[in-house]
Amino acid sequence: QKAPEFSIFILHACAHNPTGTDPTPDQWKQIAAVMKRRFLFPFFDSAYQGFASGSLDKDAWAVRYFVSEGFELFCAQSFSKNFGLYNERVGNLTVVGKDADNVQRVLSQMEKIVRTTWSNPPSQGARIVATTLTSPQLFAEWKDNVKTMADHRVLLMRSELRSRLESLGTPGTWNHITDQIGMFSFTGLNPKQVEYMIKEKHIYLMASGRINMCGLTTKNLDYVAKSIHEAVTKIQ
């Protein structure tokens, strides 16, 4: 509300990192209304499309809503996670504008930035993405793979971790683990408990308590849950 007019706001399209908490559609509408009233420019960061809900369309809802409301915007998209191409550094910048001439001006500036930044990046990752997205069969297979990752890896690991902590009787409430979405979660552990996890259990997470849920597997889930239980019960 108090930001200077024409300020640029970076918005996570879905699966907010690090909180794992996304605005609801109604909240997105409120955000859009404020931004329109204050002439604020949306710059979406879309790094986890498909990993929030398992649906590419559902995870793109916020960006598409802003476009439908007449916003000019940028959307930076990464394919590192949802294509499993982390070491290829593949992504794109989508520019939505009302005026074709303005879009051309933006493109010319982007070309200059690209030329001076990396000039001619490797094309292998980009070709993998392009081939997949332009082939109906491969696109359908990829969407199914993304849904599998969201449902059977991320969501399942969240559910199983919460279940184990509650079964152990770990002090506190743990519903936030399943309430949050995406690859990352705030565990609620304090810095001293995090230090215990790192030094005594060799489980690595941020001092804020943020953990990468994709680091959980069926093989280490029990160990992680018991370690969190120890940290919470031993360290205040």
TrEMBL record:
Residues 2-228 form the Aminotransferase class I/classII large domain. It catalyses: L-cysteine + 2-oxoglutarate = 2-oxo-3-sulfanylpropanoate + L-glutamate; L-aspartate + 2-oxoglutarate = oxaloacetate + L-glutamate; (2S)-2-aminobutanoate + 2-oxoglutarate = 2-oxobutanoate + L-glutamate; 3-sulfino-L-alanine + 2-oxoglutarate = 3-sulfinopyruvate + L-glutamate. GO terms for biological process: aspartate biosynthetic process. GO terms for molecular function: 2-aminobutanoate transaminase activity; L-aspartate:2-oxoglutarate aminotransferase activity; L-cysteine transaminase activity; pyridoxal phosphate binding. This is Aspartate aminotransferase. It is found in: Cytoplasm. Its EC number is 2.6.1.1. GO terms for cellular component: cytosol. It holds the Pfam family Aminotran_1_2. It comes from Anas platyrhynchos (Mallard). In eukaryotes there are cytoplasmic, mitochondrial and chloroplastic isozymes. Keywords: Amino-acid biosynthesis, Aminotransferase, Cytoplasm, Pyridoxal phosphate, Transferase. It comes from the Eukaryota. PANTHER family: ASPARTATE AMINOTRANSFERASE, ASPARTATE AMINOTRANSFERASE, CYTOPLASMIC. Its main location: cytoplasm. Belongs to the class-I pyridoxal-phosphate-dependent aminotransferase family. Gene3D superfamilies: Aspartate Aminotransferase, domain 1 (3.90.1150.10), Type I PLP-dependent aspartate aminotransferase-like (Major domain) (3.40.640.10).
